[in-house]
Structure formats: structure tokens, C-alpha cells
């Protein structure tokens, strides 16, 4: 029997496959554990006609309705050191590997470099799509290449760093290439001449509080885990999709007006002269922290995170998000842009982190 056929199911619930625990169904669903299964699906006549969506850990995904197409759930596993050079280890992982487990494993094997990205929910394959980042590091900085299936031509392709066009919470896979590729594996370049990344204020404070002047990779890992556990809700206990908005980047003129009115506004100048602001601060200042609208709330320890208080639906999330955007626009003249992929019955591109 062709193993790919056995995996194709009709009318599947997606509620346990998204970390916000939103109820939605997929008309068709297939779990991909190995490439031959995908090849089997591609060979099926139904393949050509369906809308498709590639699902990873579902940790960066807001489902606002049922999906009428074919949901491809990537569960490809495997992790290995594939090459070594004088200055780096090259570690490759299947796209379905769980990101926080993978980070811990690299440290256990003695290959540091991903410790600032500890505990981020999601899969390895989703990490480059939104260029996950935290505590002073983006995955782009440790990225070597990825392998993917082009769902338009059904061919295997490789992307190097330049081809991914990484930006802040952004890559080509969220723009021109949205929906086109199913990432199967990612290779990371982990530097032998490792230097701790401790510039982020929270990390520096945490290490200082622990009296650690010369941190090891495990020290940074432990500090990041402690900070995240304090500030961010564990999706296993309080369903959420991480930061709900991107931190907005504004022109210098807008920044000068805002800082004159709000001298305590957190801000991060960018090399191009623009300035990144902290969306969490703007939202908190509008009085949203800890508030709920129906079954969706603004997390009490980090206003950038929306949480499911029980029984939330996609439309409830969008209602609260819109109310927040409206008040931040009215108070500061700044537009907030959602960070997760929003998938409803309307056509959109790929991919849930
Ligand atoms: N702040 C507030 N109130 C809040 C939240 C934040 O005043 O409710 C202020 C903080 O005091 C600080 C500034 O805003 O001055 C930044 O806050 P924080 O360090 O918590 O980081 P963030 O900008 O809110 C970003 C990422 C997080 C990542 C952290 C740490 C985005 C959209 N979010 O949050 O990523 O963990 O930095 O690096 O860039 C995610 O993408 O899902 C995510 C959780």
C-alpha cells in the first residue's frame, strides 16, 4: 500500500494543532513524515486542484474559519551534524523537529549558538519563515540553508541565506513565495568561536542577578528560559500564539514627535535611520494589559501576547486585535501589524509556525 494514501484524511479537526486552540476544520488533511509520502500525494490526481496550506507547530497561526483545501502537516524528523569546518559546525534538522527540543539538543552535543532562541514554541521548518528572534538573536544569524519542495513544480529546491531574504519577523516565505514551498529540512551554522549574546537588557539583568560575569551557553539558555517563563504564557497551559503584533518601525519624524510627548517610550534605532518601538508598551499604555473582551485577553505579564481564556474562536481574537489597533492608532498615530499568519476561508499563503 502507498503510505501517502493511508495518511490522507477528510474533515479533520485542527484545534489540537494550533497553540491558540481555535476550533477549525480542514476539508483534507495529510501528515507528512517522510519525503516519499509527499511524492505519493503529489502523484494523486486530487493534488493539482486543491488549495494547500503547510502547517508546522501551529504556534504562529490564527484560524478564523474552516479550511476548504488540503492541510499538509509537516512531521519530518531527524537531526545530525552534517559537516564541520575550522570555524563552524553544520547541523541539519528535519522540518518537523520541535524547535525548543532541537535547541536543547544542540547544546547537549556541545554546539552552542541557538541558546537565545530557547523555549520558542514551534518547529524547525517554521523557524526561518518568520525568522524567529528573541533576546538579541534572529535565526537568520545561524542559518546556513534549507531544503524545500516547490509545490508549483513539485521539485526539490535549496535556499541559502540570501535567497531567504530575511528581515525582522520576515522572509521571502511570508511574501512573494508565500504558500509555494514546503520546507523539509534546515541546516544551521553554529560558530566554533562562540561569543555569548548578552546585549538584550533582560538577559544582561538576569545574568547580573545571578552573578554571572562570563556566561557559558548554558548560562544564557537558563537565563532566557527564566525570563520567558516569567513573561510569556506557556501555550500548554494558557493557549496563545506568542507576540500578536510586530514591533512597529517608524520614520525619524514620527519618532521625534512621539519621544517629545512620551520621554519614557522604549525605542531601538535602526541602521537606516528609522526607529523600532515596543508594541507591548504602546498597548499597555492604552490600558489593555490584563483586559479581556469575551473569551480572549491581553496577557497580564506581556501586553503583546493575546491569550485564549477558554472557548475562544478566531473571530473573537480578531475583534480584540482590531480594538487594540484602533486605540494604539488613536493614542499614538502608529499602525500595528499582526505577526501570526491569519488563515480563514479566504485564500492566503502558507504557513503556521
Ligand atoms: N513592554 C511594556 N509592556 C508590556 C510589554 C513590553 O512596557 O506589556 C516594554 C518592556 O518593558 C520593554 C519593551 O517593551 O521596554 C520590550 O519588551 P520585551 O523585551 O518583553 O520584548 P518585546 O519587544 O515585547 C520581542 C519579541 C518577542 C521576544 C522578545 C524578547 C516581537 C514581536 N516580539 O517582544 O518574541 O521574545 O522581544 O526578544 O518582536 C514572538 O515573536 O512571538 C515573541 C514572543
Shape: globular
Mean pLDDT: 94
Q: What is the number of beta strands?
A: 20
Main sheet? Answer: 5 strands, antiparallel
Task: Please count the helical segments.
Answer: 9
Helix content: 10-25%
Q: Are there runs of 5+ residues with pLDDT below 50, and where?
A: 347-353
Instruction: Please indicate the percent range of residues in DSSP E strands (runs of 2 or more).
Output: 25-35%
Element order, helices and strands? HEEHEEEEEHEEEEHEHHEEHEEHEEEHE
Distance between the termini: 31 Å
Spatial order of strands in the largest sheet: 6-7-12-10-11
Bound molecules: uridine-diphosphate-2(N-acetylglucosaminyl) butyric acid
Class derived from helix and strand content: alpha+beta
Secondary-structure map with pairings?
Layout: H1 3-7, E1 8-13, E2 25-32, H2 35-42, E3 52-55, E4 61-63, E5 67-74, E6 79-84, E7 88-94, H3 99-108, E8 133-134, E9 137-138, E10 143-150, E11 155-160, H4 161-164, E12 181-191, H5 201-209, H6 217-231, E13 240-243, E14 249-250, H7 252-261, E15 267-269, E16 275-277, H8 279-285, E17 292-293, E18 296-298, E19 305-308, H9 314-332, E20 341-343
Parallel strand pairs: 2-5, 3-5, 4-20
Antiparallel strand pairs: 1-2, 6-7, 7-12, 8-9, 10-11, 10-12, 13-19, 14-16, 15-16, 17-18, 18-19
Helix pairs in contact: 5-6
